[in-house]
Amino acid sequence: MALKWLDKRLKWVFTLPAVLFVALMMVFPLGYTIRLSFFEWSMSAINPPKWVGLDNYKELLSGERFWHDFGITFYFTFAAVIVQMVLGVLIAVLLNRKGKGKNVAKTIFLMPMVATPIAMGMVWLLIFEPSIGVLNTILKTFGLNPLEWLGSVNQVIPSLIIIDTWQWTPMICLLLLAGLTTLPQDPYESADVDGASAWQKFIYITLPLLRPTILVALMLRMIDALKTFDIIFATTQGGPGSSSETLNIYGYILAFQNFKLGLASSLLVLFFLLVLGMTLGVIWLRKRLEVAS
Amino acid sequence: MKRRGMISGYLFTILTVFVLVVFAFPLVWMLLASFKTQIQMQSTSNFFFFEPTMKNYVQVFQENNFMKYIYNSAVVALGATAGGLLLGLPAAYSIARYRMHGLALTILIARIVPGITFLLPWFILFNNMNLIDSYTALILSHMLVSLPFIIWVMIPFFESLPNEIEEAALIDGSSKAGVFVRIVLPISGPGIITSSLMSIIFSWNNFLFSLVLAGEKTKTLPIALFNFISYSEVNWGGLMAAATVITLPIIIIALFSQRYVISGLSAGAVKG
Amino acid sequence: MMIQTKKWLVLGVSMTLVAGLLAGCGGKSTPNASEGTETASNANQPHKGKKLTVYLGNLPLGNTLKTMIPEFEKETGMKVEFQSFAEDQLSQKLSIQLTTQASVPDVFMLRPPQEAKLFAKNGWVYPLDELARQDADYDFGDFSESATQANVVDDKLIGIPVLLDQTVVYYRKDLLEKAGIAVPKTLDELEEAIKTLHDPKKEVYGFVARGQRSALVTMVAPFLFSEGADFMQGDKATVNTPEAIKGFGRYANWLKNYGPPGVLNMAFPQAWGIFAQGKAAFFIEFSSSYTNGTDKEKSVVADDIGYAVFPTGAAGSKPVSASTWALSINANAADKDAAWQFIKWATSKKMVGTLQKEGNPGVRDSVWNDPESTSAFPAELVEVTLENSKIGIGHDRPQVISVGEAREIIGDIVVKAMLGEDIQAAADKANKDFQALIDKEKLK
Question: Is the Cβ–Cβ distance between A264 and A255 less than 8 Å?
Fold first, then answer.
């Protein structure tokens, strides 16, 4: 009887605990932050927050810095995610081939993601260091010109993208490898009969079948890339000048270096809406593709 | 035809090795650095050949209570992952089968909200409940990171499972919940392991939440890492040794689970 | 508790229930200063059985404090629990805990030039005047004037300085000797020397110092002071005066023309790395980090480092001599007197002497005048330190409430100049922004 009751309501019994948990953990922080975004507050323990209405939002949206950081956030995210998706798909297919040492290869490849970002930020800081770092030494041995990497206004974002790509391409691969295990064998068998090349099979069978997984990987990676914090903070703190300052870094600086919690809260609200919008975009894309096929 | 296959086979192997070398390089750098003095580390000449020192590791284990931090991190990471799976797997299954995409999005919001939003409110909340410096607070906070991830990784996975298996079982008189536990979960091994591994990694490396909610008793590894960065010097050697030590347990877990993913894969193929 | 938290109390209660249901594990405990229930039977140990939580910044002196603490615990019968954090993390954690009026930690370190005004204004710290001056043995007058200055906000003492930071010119004796150059006495001479020794082909750069926007402000400060400029005068921003621009410009030009590649991203660790690897002739940094250069496991030039007083500019030699770290008491600490006992012990003549013997420059004059306590330091550095204490300026960054923001504004002048932008325009803009910040603070 109990099982029958459960079966009828399975849809909700299965989802409710997760939803409830997320809601309980988030309602207070979100409400608190939204409320605080209309106040001015230096975290004082004696003077309560002062109501300023929409002033914080006005200050942010009319300031150069917000839009500058907005641009940097997008530049970084788009470039990083595109590079990582392309590399991720290719490497996943590469690693999915049968062969000796596959497990070891996979494990080695997953390691970048495992290493703590803060520590890896410090590692990359020394690798990238123009005078005492190993990367320029390598470039010089191959007769190439050394670069300034993190110390140059123009090279800093590409350098950070290298770090981010190194660290998170494995995640995309891992998700795709798990997805690859669920692919049916039949289409490949009939393609073999038709004499299709490996490349054709990849384009016409693997990619379309993997699409749901690819889109989820893309979405999860995009959300995290927009919020990238650890590696930027550990390597450049948003510099040189402000050339690698993303919105998330700006939010941290406002909150915990300048102690302007009201302004920081309104930035976090705007940033949240932005990431939400981007996510909805990807979900919309996913639906469109589903309808199209 | 056959020869072309062999050539492309070699090509693929070379390509794989190349990719692995590039991706492993920073970690090799870290590992070597952990056996170097600061001079050797910052010198551009002797990258591979140097006189190794164990001093950095001695520092990590003697001057710091690293075993305790490893234990704390493990409790929190495993706790958060177990909690995430417990709530996440049924939810993902239900969302996949009943196409509840709106609900999935609601849960995803937990991942969209920037991390610093939570810090002050959570401190107030958990402090009121007397839960600062407790595993409970850390596990709950890390679960909020891992749960949406687990759910979203599992949705396409459950969606791609053929419906026929479940239908056959239902005709045999099983309950839906029974089918989920006895049939769906076992063949979802690769997906569950992948998402668990990711969840453990996210929790293992989480810094921001742990900094605010942990205390001396529950201090986790990423926070301990900062012991090596001080106001007037960076102890590069100790830092690299500590970073290596932090990475090891997860790599061991990854190695074991890889094996399981493969066996799960072949099991799945038989059934599918 | 804060007023707005009450509104959420209902939610908090429901959270408790869920938390309890979801995770049955985890011990509940918050360290509490007044946990001890034993009554004070011993007059010498009035705080016996109490527990103190102390948050330290990651400073070498913290390790010494930790090893010495059993002595204090035995003496007073109290228990002390230390937690250490890197400076950004300490500041973040403190702000969150103190704003919610948590009673933990009882004692913490703060960075007075950076945070004293904000901490005082926010009601996070307990005034120490009475405690510090009541005890003749403690001898508060022994602390050097320039060092305590940054710890006084609105005539209230809010922290006891524990570390002395001074601008020092580090140089390579061997390189100067080889080129036949005397140790520069003026900034112009130093510029000549930098130019002469700059040899990028051999990867020896003339000059290295911090180039990161916020980090560089404390290093460019003496360049301003020595030209007769300052960040502000009274309530007026003065970062675009001709003297200030001369100071900023000199620093920027040296780094731009004679600095190593990538200097724009350098904070102290990278800059020390360059100098310790023998890749720079002159280096300007605080004295408290000198072991990065003298430690033979960190530096290839350990035997060749010289130390010089900051050279004179138009207005003489004005290095920084400031206390950058201090110990303070939480305004909501359960027992302020117990907390004070710890600070008193940690900053006593005896402890400061012990710490100084291990290379941690302290701020007690009596200790510096005792030759034994300076045995750890290179003799030349001791001379420079004593001279700096006489001529030094007690602040190294603008003295406002929002120091973090002000540093960004001011550091930008140097960054823009290094990127080849017009320095006058950059300084004018910075001055305007900085003035707006000062005006806004005055209104509060």
Answer: yes
- Provide φ and ψ at C401, rounded to 5°: -80, -50
**Does B27 fall in a domain?**
no
- The pTM for the full model equals 0.90
C297 SS3 class: coil
Residue B170 covered by a domain: yes
Question: How many domains does chain B contain in total?
Answer: 1
Any domain includes B14? no
Supply the CATH number for residue B173's domain. Answer: 1.10.3720.10
Q: What is the pLDDT of residues B41-83, one digit of tens each?
A: 888 777 777 888 899 999 888 877 888 999 999 999 999 999 9
Q: State pLDDT tens for residues C196-251.
A: 999 999 989 999 999 999 999 999 999 999 999 999 999 999 999 999 999 999 99
| pLDDT of amino acid B261 | 61
Is C19 at the interface with chain B, CB within 8 A?
A: yes
Kindly list the distances between the CA atom of residue C66 and the CA atoms of A140, A253, C73, C84, C210, in Å, as whole numbers in the listed order. Answer: 47, 31, 11, 10, 31
**Cα–Cα distance for residue pair C151/A204, rounded to 1 Å:** 70
The answer to the question of residue B5 being in a domain is no
Q: How many helices (H) and strands (E) does chain C have?
A: 19, 12
Q: Which carries the bigger pLDDT value, residue A256 or residue C34?
A: A256
B80 to chain C: which residues are within 8 Å by CB? none
d(CA B238, CA B8): 44
Selection from A220, A207, A139 nearest residue A179 by Cα: A207
Cβ burial, residue C199 (10 Å; 0-12/13-18/19+) = middle
Pairwise CB contact (< 8 Å): B42 & C60: no
Domain boundary assignment for chain A: 76-246
What is the residue range of B146's domain? Answer: 57-268
Can you give the pLDDT at residue C444?
64
- The DSSP H or E segment spanning C306 is strand C305-308
Q: What are phi and psi of B37, to 5 degrees?
A: -80, 170
CATH of the structural domain A76-246, one choice from 3.40.50.10320, 3.10.450.50, 3.30.413.10, 1.10.3720.10: 1.10.3720.10
CB C418 within 8 A of CB C267: no
Sign, CA dihedral C5-C92-A237-C407, equals: positive
Res. C32 pLDDT band, cuts 50 70 90: very low
Question: Is the separation of the CB atoms in C23 and B76 below 8 Å?
Answer: no
Inform me whether the pLDDT recorded for C161 exceeds 50: yes
CB of A227 within 8 A of CB of A276?
no
Q: Residue A183's closest CA among A202, A196, A198?
A: A202
Residues in A touching C123 (Cβ below 8 Å): 44-47
B83 interaction partners in chain C (CB closer than 8 Å)? 22-23
Of C22, C27, C58, the CB nearest to B231: C58
User: ∠ at Cα A263 (A257, A265), nearest 5°?
Assistant: 95
C234 min Cα distance to partner chain B (Å): 30
- Chain segment B102-151, per-residue pLDDT in tens: 899 989 999 999 999 999 999 999 999 999 999 999 999 999 999 999 99
Q: Higher confidence at residue C141 or residue A270?
A: A270
Query: To which H or E segment does residue B227 belong?
Result: none
Nearest CA in chain A to B204: A116
Contact between A11 and B77 under an 8 Å Cβ cutoff? The reply is no
Q: Rounded to 5 degrees, what are φ and ψ at C19?
A: -60, -40
Please give the torsion angle defined by the CA atoms of residues C367, C370, C371 and C376, in that order, rounded to the nearest 10 degrees. Answer: -20
